[in-house]
Amino acid sequence: MIPRELTAKLQSLAELFPAVTLTGPRQSGKSTLVRTTFPNYRYVSLEDEDMREAALDDPRAFLARYNNHVILDEVQRTPALFSYLQGVIDQHNAPGQYILSGSQNFLLMNRISQSLAGRVAVLHLLPLSYSELAAAHREPNTIDDFLFEGCYPRPVTLGIDPADFFPSYIKTYIDRDVRAELGIKKITEFNTFLTLCATRVGEVLNITSLANDCGISTDTARDWLSVLETSFITLRLHPYHKNYGKRLIKAPKLYFYDTGLAANLLGIESADQLFTSQNRGNLYENAIVVEIIKRYQAIGREPKLFYWRDSNQKEIDLIIERGGRPQYAIEVKSSSTYRPKSFENLEDLAPLMGVDPQHRFIVYGGSEAIDTRHGHVIGINDVGRLVQ
């Protein structure tokens, strides 16, 4: 197992809260992480039909048996259990009673908000970060390998070809989460929708155009985007909301939580093919956005990330806000060669937001860190500097 940066936060919250919930996409390593972190806890998988039936048939007896120091995996599969969990947790009123994990964030969080609010801490585990790979000496040879292969633990650790892993992953996701658990019936159209989302990675989202290309209504497109987001497949990066006297673009940009999945949906068949793809720059930008999110979530925090684009098409790829104001202004360049002109937009726009040169960054495709009078140049290996 590649060590996960979230481990320390998971342990510390279990010492403070009666229950800790760990959500994330399928195959992100949740079960492995909780079982490794809490080896003395009893483990119950509610994917197991017999266990699930026992929990649903007599929840009081089930929880009387499993009442303390228990991992309940895929717990969203037993929604009736949550109201009974509340009673057991309140009766014992001790930290670390339950570790709850699940892959369907919408269903899981809906049950928690109804029954366990205030009693449970919530963490998210995404696929492996670049920093986790590097710490385990498993980082890919090139940036293009990293973008193409993605970061799901199973293909990374077992060397599974992305062409074998991702089609099976998509089929499992569609069959289990989309069809069975969320009740979406138009599976063919949903598959098309997912692929069309991949063609828009890193672009400002025009939901009407996306709906028209898929042959569905805009309301359906909005619903399906919400499904993809709560399943940790896609995310939306919203534009910065402060006016500053400028006419700013109001639509979000669309990204995937894993570039390997996006590349597979785009039909990219190798890292060499990705190197020459017109999507390479957008996929690298996607990787940097998600790397920052992973680093924040590893310390149990939600980042406040935005982008800036005004009506004159001047853009800053990323703004990290802290304390109600921009802390960092960041441009992403996939080239491994640094060029001073990369700072042009930052020099034009960052002063307007009060971001000085020490807080302006270019994240490029190289690995050497360079400090300039315009700001700092770093590679993906040094993105941790932006998470404080």
UniProtKB/TrEMBL annotation:
Classification via InterPro entries: AAA_14, DUF4143, P-loop_NTPase
Domain DUF4143 stretches: 175-335
One Pfam family named in its UniProt record: DUF4143
Domain AAA: residue ranges: 18-133
PANTHER family xrefs: CONSERVED PROTEIN (PTHR43566), DUF4143 DOMAIN-CONTAINING PROTEIN (PTHR43566:SF2)
Protein name according to UniProt: AAA superfamily protein
